[in-house]
Design goal:
Elements (H helix, E strand, L loop, with lengths): L1 H25 L12 H25 L4 H11 L7 H6 L5 H29 L8 H26 L6 H32 L4 H19 L6 H10 L3 H10 L4 H28 L8
Length: 289
Amino acid sequence: MEVLKHLLPILLTVSLALLVVAAGIASSRGDFASVVARPSLLARAFVAIVVIPVIAAIAIMSAFPISNAAKAGIFLMAISPVPPLMPGKAMKFGGNAGYIYGLQGAAALMALLTVPALGALGARLYEVHAQFPVGIVARNIFVGLVVPLAIGLAIGRWLFPKASPALPRTVILVANLLLVAAFVPLLIGAAPEMGKLIGDGTMVAMAIVVVIALAGGHFLGGPSEQDRPTLAVAASLRHPGIALALAGANHAAKPVTAAVLLFMLVGMVVLILYQLAMKKRSPVPAAQP
């Protein structure tokens, strides 16, 4: 059991890193800087990914009589943007690869400033003693994005520039298998605490926050209809790795960890429903990585 406790975070880190490696292999030159280089796109991305989820979380937490642990989990996820899962999810909507990878790069840069700032603002607003060190966010981004992205770019641009398009898909498959192997035990371990959060309005509150973020991203993702689902996915999916790291830095109790994981699951369900609705409205062929 002790070995498993130390192995799971490693599996989780490796699996998420492999998703970024795959993105690096599949990307084209300039993709990851494409949003940062265009102020209008960057401004809309900032509002959708950073501002709307946090405002929604604060408003819903004030309106629902849920536990403090649930509120902490919702807030931590609201301030933790764009996980490595985002490109793969956005690709299913037929999104433009350059825009997808550009959002991921922009969100990573924004997170370095916004996560500590919003965390400190939340601690002051709710009068709690909590720390949101820049170092934790920077470490997550460096280990989870910068290093694997550099590896992926090296493979795709210099080491194997003529590699089969199937290579990133193979890397994604391996990453997803490792992700399941890491998350299933985490979810099983957190199940008792997650069960306590069901039935008191917590899941409804989480779903509303996700839906508001999703709607904000969809609205701001224009003018191209192709870009709306991409920004909607980027705005609604949050980074459980950053949220859990911040919870750990503040020695949060198990119910907070359970709330973070429950928020992630609720977000996935809402995203599936959104995907089904978009397919019914206007079927779009999935983009190839």
